[in-house]
User: Fold this.
Amino acid sequence: MTAPFHLAAFMNAGPMGTVGWRHPEARPDFLDAAYYLETARLLEDARFDLLFIPDSLAVPRSLQGSFEPAVRFGAGTPRLEPLTVLALLAGATSRIGLVATTSTGYAAPYAVARTYATLDHLSGGRAGWNVVTSFQDAEAQNFGFPALPPREERYARAEEFLEAATQLWDSWSDDALVLDKESGQLGRPEEVRAVDYRGEHVATQGPLGVPRPPQGYPVIVQAGASPQGRDVAARWADVIFCSHESIESAIEFYADVKRRALEHGRDPEAVRILPAVSPVVGTDRADAQARHRAFEQLVDPVAGLSRLAYHINTDLTRYDLDGPLPELDVSGVQGHYREVLEHARRENLTVRELGQWYGARTEGYLVGSGSDIADGMEEWVDRGAADGFMIVAAHVPGSFAEFVEHVVPELRRRGRLREEYRGTTLRENLGLARPARDEWRNRARGRGAAESPS
Amino acid sequence: MTAPFHLAAFMNAGPMGTVGWRHPEARPDFLDAAYYLETARLLEDARFDLLFIPDSLAVPRSLQGSFEPAVRFGAGTPRLEPLTVLALLAGATSRIGLVATTSTGYAAPYAVARTYATLDHLSGGRAGWNVVTSFQDAEAQNFGFPALPPREERYARAEEFLEAATQLWDSWSDDALVLDKESGQLGRPEEVRAVDYRGEHVATQGPLGVPRPPQGYPVIVQAGASPQGRDVAARWADVIFCSHESIESAIEFYADVKRRALEHGRDPEAVRILPAVSPVVGTDRADAQARHRAFEQLVDPVAGLSRLAYHINTDLTRYDLDGPLPELDVSGVQGHYREVLEHARRENLTVRELGQWYGARTEGYLVGSGSDIADGMEEWVDRGAADGFMIVAAHVPGSFAEFVEHVVPELRRRGRLREEYRGTTLRENLGLARPARDEWRNRARGRGAAESPS
Assistant:
């Protein structure tokens, strides 16, 4: 089969990790509008479906509880607020989807639903929300809590949060606004309703102060890798972002999530699975490999461990640096540690060697010529591991520029990328139906969970 | 004296009240980017210092607890999230200040400080924060609280919130970023510090994930009219937005706030007081009066009472519509009810008549030719009632367009408006110093309040 697949672009609202900002071509002006405006235009010109910005609510305190390594090496800091960046881009782009990350841990559904509804209106239906539950103690502490709540509680809150948010988006019908200047009637009160959501973790009255978003609901993105995470994603997500060390684990994940979506009463086709790929492109394979080696040489092993500590909320410098990786039940992103452990075992790495490797690592390396990388991507799609890819930049804008120059034309030649946007909204470009009002009622809670409270 | 004064523009992120959206020239596309982009460009071309967007966190439930009149008449709804609108504008403008409204009641200092710091970076130092404490029960209920907290508690929280936010903005020194690609050092850890703020109402650990804003602190705007409100404003505000029914009450307010600023150890010149003015401009006075009468005829008295109920959190339809206004201690914006009462007494209005008047009212009408309005503005500045004005649009973009066409050139001829922006940041354009790190320590709490906890 040669159906076109989807392309998303992943970049931080700040430096790209401890190594990416050091790349000779990396732009240093990541606090300025121009950095984002010019990168978004590059991606839109290449017809990417969406631009995705991750988030974190703290300067990571990854080694011995100190934020010093993060500041010194640029591990997860600084980082601008992603919705603000995307709102900036909404006025300067016209087709590319704009997906920000917002945690359900420390905000209220009314505020989050309102901001995404606003972005969806102002962008003409191009907003997406990557729903995360946060994973660092330092984030909880920035919001006045002593520590990260347990995973079960975080996911229970996330489910309620999504129920409340979707009901807020549904509080105005699609045709509630009349705007009849003659009679003085602005809206139809009978087409607007309260929500009165009372959960264990969140509550809101409604209605929302913003009419129903152009897309019905903004596109929901999720990246949960744990069983709870997969279940939330299967219930709610339109797009699932994931990361795998091998095509085999990607195929297993793909099949599992599509099966879970079916269990939640959803069409598995309505869930787009986009594994992360970090392409290192060269004029030929040798050139690409040389580029990749040059990049790896920029890594400091402690910076790499600091970055890993940030991702898994666990400080591996407490263990023997020259010993093997310990088996741990980490409180951070669980699936991620599993992958890292898998890699370390396979390559027989010490903790120090792992730091060296991890510092330069971006999800799903593909190193080679444009044709090599196109081959790799085709294989993943054709073997049922992907509906498209999240292209993770190692450095900005260089990684995207190389991909656009060398890989995009190759994929177009092979009929795997569309030449033009299919529509104006992100849902249209992803080939996803616009949810009717009350569509959330079709999203049954997973096994063992209580019925929706309203 | 003929020193230039300041101009700010006030518009909703939605329809302009129950009447403004019905104006024949009012644009109906207030959910679209173009509405904001084109209006902001008009204001920037005329060299306005800033664009100000108010906010509210609920569809007002102003009459008998129902949101129906608000939806029917367009009283305070719909309303987009203001920071998202201003971020959109940051990319499409280069000099005009961007002031959004955010309540301290239902958000966390970490989130708010981070978003305004982001907007300040992306706009090159043009962000401002209008600090409000919220005044409607419906807003509290949207965030899971049973009712609006008492005024004392709201202001105590606001003070803590501002202390925490300024300390977060100060958590990075101005030169903490190094970005040395050669050595791999991104930042100087010794120039970044935690905040560890523990108040009665808010707490945060820090440091902020965003480096110190270009303006040090975004411009702080306040509009408190009650004694507590004036005190918070005198301690924290760079710009004070107010509204008066007479020049005499404006002169009293101006003198009182400048005196309070001095008591807080601040230079009274460092506080800009901008009363609201809603100009109705015509080719001559008769034309302007005819325009104003036409506008008033669009009012439904119940819509007017619904709008008033939203502003003062009190439903006057519970009283005799044909009787006089009652004396009330309203829980909403206190100074506002005092003004309305003052007007009703002077004009001997019934509740119904007040509704008719209030529906068309915008703060500080000035009706006349360009020359008449310039005369009025000059008088206010020269008699010590104002450092400039907040131009409140009755309808958008017409009110601004008329003001720019007829009043701005007249004020320029008189030397009361500068021809060009003075600088690139909002502080520079307002003639306000950039706060050094830890400048917040100079902001002593008001009488009787405890010392700052850190």
Observations:
- Residues 125 and 214 of chain B are 5 Å apart (CA to CA).
- Chain B touches chain A through 84 residues (CB under 8 Å).
- Residues 6-284+364-442 of chain B form a domain with the TIM Barrel fold (CATH 3.20.20.30).
- The mean pLDDT of chain B is 91.
